[in-house]
Design brief:
This protein has helices at residues 3-16, 35-50, 65-75, 95-116, 119-129, 140-148. With 153 residues, the chain is an all-alpha fold. The radius of gyration is 23 Å and the shape is extended.
């Protein structure tokens, strides 16, 4: 970014957001990697992300507070409009409160999949997640109709 463009951006920011604190524009420190290195890193990230699963079976072992705080700090670095991070994170350690949150969350999830989501979205979700995700809802009659259709060659 040229010096002129940076100044122009800062001026526009002040014009648009006069009540906000002065913005600090830092250029991105970017290192372009060799194509083979990019492919290898990308494959590594994909393999790790592809291992993730929904789970409702949690360890009773406590998590050190320092790790929870670092996870929250890491999540807080996600990009947001004007880099304001307008979210709130809450770490809950009380078992009874966790149980209430889980119950409310699962109730909302059930309500979403059974009443809010269109049937086509449910089928697409099941098709994209496959048998890996037992919580991906399928519409059996739609799956059966699709399987019974002849394919065009």
């Amino acid at each position: 970014m040229s010096e002129h463009r940076g100044t122009e951006t800062a001026d526009e920011y002040r014009r648009l957001f006069p009540d906000l604190p002065e913005a600090v524009f830092e250029p991105l420190a970017f290192e372009r990697l060799a194509p083979a290195e990019m492919r290898a890193r990308s494959a590594e990230v994909f393999a790790e992300l592809d291992r993730r699963r929904t789970t409702r079976d949690f360890s009773p072992d406590p998590v050190p507070r320092e790790l929870i705080e670092l996870a929250i700090r890491s999540a807080g670095t996600a990009p947001s409009g004007a880099h304001r991070q307008p979210w709130t994170f809450v770490a809950v350690s009380d078992a009874a409160l966790k149980a209430q949150i889980r119950e409310a969350t699962e109730s909302e999830e059930h309500h979403t999949y059974t009443e809010r989501m269109p049937r086509r979205a449910l089928h697409r979700r099941r098709a994209s997640h496959g048998a890996r995700d037992p919580h991906a809802y399928a519409e059996p009659d739609e799956v059966s109709r699709r399987a019974a259709r002849p394919t065009e060659e």
